[in-house]
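Supplementary Methods. Inverse-folding protocol.

Structures were first reduced to a discrete structure-token string of length 411. This string, shown here, constituted the complete conditioning input.
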């Protein structure tokens, strides 16, 4: 028997949540631990309380709502995502995974289905990282990857600390449930890219996430007046910048799964009539295969060395600033997602996640998988972000099916 979620109830809740911190063009702004974020959480708490799902909170403000299973000692099935948004966020990023999780708990309750394992809905604090850094803070603490004391001290642009906001909203330093003891973690999310839409598929079976490396590169020349100094006597770093851009984009073009982005270029002093004395640029390299990412790194380093020797008057400094390894989700959970979609006649497509998610942290502790649904034009982190009611319901139905497979099984 194939159980189904209530698509209309889920859609109505997505729209209701979007009314908290509304911004023009159907978007939402609920920055982490702001009044709006707290109001969104309070709305969710009221929905869960009405159904009797018990709430626990931890020291970083993560929320855990439980629908109790038959065996209180069995490791629970976790579902979840985040409610915080970017400053110009959409209605679906994160919210979909949370409210679809609630919809799964409610559907189980409506059907009077007794699961063997408890099912916990998790809301992770500060996934977005726009007000406080680092991103994926709550899941990082829950998984023992980020030290609690360090993230409590993180402050926003106005000097307000995470710890201050938690106290202001009445969060106690309650002991956290150990997510490492969970049976598995499942997260439904909009794709935030164009692949499902372009392939005409409804469900993305997310097999893992791209590895990411961030570099800061500085080109040192000599600051001079744009008029009096002849071209041949300048130490102008701009021609080398041009070669660097070619180098990085050639690395990005080496195979279809590679991604290279130069997101920031700053010239100093940044004046129209001054030859820049220094240029700083960032490079973001991504690939779903760690060996390929290593090869991209090597190509960048080799290319920089070659360029440095062909431009001896310019100093070239390359620093690897951050590294997030390739993430592999649990193959047996991915198979369950694929089979569930197939059983319901929903077209599915294996893919890797290009964006970071809380599930990346969870995957280091418990078997984890993500389920993607299409979002229109691949737009996300923007008020135009949109997923259709049909796709939202399909994603939640696949989530329900995988939850049932795991929650009905004995350990
Ligand atoms: Zn998200």
């Amino acid at each position: 028997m194939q159980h189904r979620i209530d698509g209309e109830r889920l859609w109505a809740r997505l729209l209701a949540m979007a009314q908290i911190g509304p911004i023009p063009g159907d978007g939402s702004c609920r920055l982490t631990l702001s009044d709006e974020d707290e109001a969104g959480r309070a709305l969710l708490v009221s929905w869960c309380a009405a159904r009797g799902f018990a709430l626990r909170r931890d020291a970083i403000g993560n929320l855990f709502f439980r629908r109790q299973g038959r065996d209180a000692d069995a490791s629970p099935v976790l579902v979840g995502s985040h409610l915080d948004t970017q400053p110009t966020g959409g209605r679906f990023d994160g919210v979909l995974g949370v409210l679809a999780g609630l919809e799964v708990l409610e559907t189980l309750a409506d059907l009077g289905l007794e699961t063997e394992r408890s099912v916990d809905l998790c809301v992770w604090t500060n996934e977005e990282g726009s007000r406080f850094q680092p991103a994926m803070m709550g899941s990082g603490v829950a998984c023992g990857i980020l030290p609690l004391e360090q993230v409590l001290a993180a402050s926003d642009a106005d000097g307000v600390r995470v710890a201050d906001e938690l106290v202001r909203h009445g969060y106690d330093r309650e002991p956290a449930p150990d997510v490492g003891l969970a049976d598995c973690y499942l997260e439904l999310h909009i794709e935030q890219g164009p692949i499902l839409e372009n392939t005409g598929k409804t469900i993305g079976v997310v097999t893992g996430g791209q590895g990411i490396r961030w570099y800061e590169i500085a080109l040192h020349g000599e600051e001079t007046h744009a008029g009096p100094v002849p071209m041949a006597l300048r130490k102008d770093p701009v021609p080398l910048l041009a070669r660097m851009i070619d180098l990085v984009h050639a690395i990005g073009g080496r195979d279809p799964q590679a991604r290279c982005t130069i997101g920031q270029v700053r010239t100093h002093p940044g004046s129209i009539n001054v030859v820049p004395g220094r240029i700083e640029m960032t490079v973001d390299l991504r690939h779903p295969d760690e060996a390929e990412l290593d090869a991209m790194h090597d190509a960048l380093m080799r290319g920089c060395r070659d360029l440095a020797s062909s431009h001896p008057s310019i100093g070239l400094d390359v620093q690897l600033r951050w590294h997030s390894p390739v993430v592999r989700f649990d193959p047996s959970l991915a198979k369950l997602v694929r089979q569930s979609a197939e059983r319901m006649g929903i077209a599915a497509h294996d893919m890797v996640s290009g964006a970071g998610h809380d599930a990346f942290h969870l995957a280091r502790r418990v078997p984890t998988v993500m389920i993607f649904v299409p979002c229109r034009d691949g737009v996300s982190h923007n008020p135009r972000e949109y997923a259709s009611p049909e796709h939202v319901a399909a994603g939640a139905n696949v989530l329900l099916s995988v939850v049932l497979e795991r929650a009905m099984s004995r350990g």
